[in-house]
Design brief:
The structure is a single chain. It is globular, with a radius of gyration of 18 Å. The chain has helices at about 10-40, 75-80, 80-90, 95-100, 135-145, 150-160, 165-190; strands at about 45-55, 60-65, 105-110, 135. The protein has about 200 residues and is mainly alpha-helical. Helix 1 runs antiparallel to helix 4 (about 95-100) and helix 5 runs parallel beside helix 7 (about 165-190). The longest helix is centred in the first third of the chain and has 35 residues, at about 10-40. It starts with 7 loop residues before the first helix and ends in a 6-residue tail after the last helix. Strands 1-2 form a two-stranded antiparallel sheet. A two-stranded parallel sheet has the order 3-4. It has one domain.
Length: about 200
């Protein structure tokens, strides 16, 4: 059945495009600085691309700033020092705004998986009824708790699709911003050390 022109998925796509166009100005400046830093610290290539599974099971090319080299065996050892900084600030994912603008991703939605990883989450369930996103319930829980079980990820992704709404998306975006600000405030406080008694 053809979706209504006023259905939320249609409105969501329009809101994504408008939001990205607004964000692209400052994002381009941040990306330019980060890319020059990546070029100096890590060399070429600056961008990392990878095939992921998107809406309706169609694959697309995910864009990120490169944060790893290929020398170490374990993934955690392959992350460069500069890459850790990019990941901590979530700057490595800024190129995905272009994925959102192109329509392969959304600002909010289940994170896109590799095709090989779909078997780990039971084939994906209803998660592919919507566009994958930059943030969603699963990513928030991972950021807040530091760990996310695959079964829990499936549960959270399915819950998102079942409750898809503008109010829900706005709540996720607000919670994402709050989590990001809280994390970096805590990191800043820890670097400064304990405050002296007043």
């Amino acid at each position: 059945m053809t979706p209504s022109l006023l259905s939320y998925p249609t409105v969501k796509r329009l809101l994504d495009a408008v939001a990205v166009l607004v964000l692209l100005g400052p994002a381009v400046l941040v990306l330019a600085v980060a890319s020059v830093g990546a070029l100096v610290a890590q060399g070429r290539p600056v961008l990392f691309t990878q095939r992921r599974v998107g809406r309706h099971g169609k694959s697309f090319l995910l864009l990120k700033l490169r944060t790893m080299n290929g020398r170490a065996y374990r993934e955690r050892d392959r992350i460069t020092r500069y890459g850790r900084l990019l990941r901590r600030l979530r700057i490595d994912e800024l190129p995905q705004l272009l994925n959102v603008l192109a329509g392969s991703m959304s600002l909010v939605g289940p994170r896109p998986l590799l095709a090989d990883h779909l078997a780990l989450v039971g084939g994906g369930g209803r998660r592919h009824d919507v566009r994958p996103g930059l943030t969603c319930y699963a990513q928030l829980e991972l950021a807040e708790r530091g760990y996310l079980d695959k079964h829990r990820q499936v549960e959270l992704d399915e819950a998102y699709v079942a409750r898809l709404s503008l109010r829900g998306d706005l709540a996720i975006l607000a919670r994402t911003a709050g989590t990001w600000l809280r994390r970096h405030r805590d990191e800043s406080d820890s670097r400064q050390g304990p405050r002296p008694p007043e």
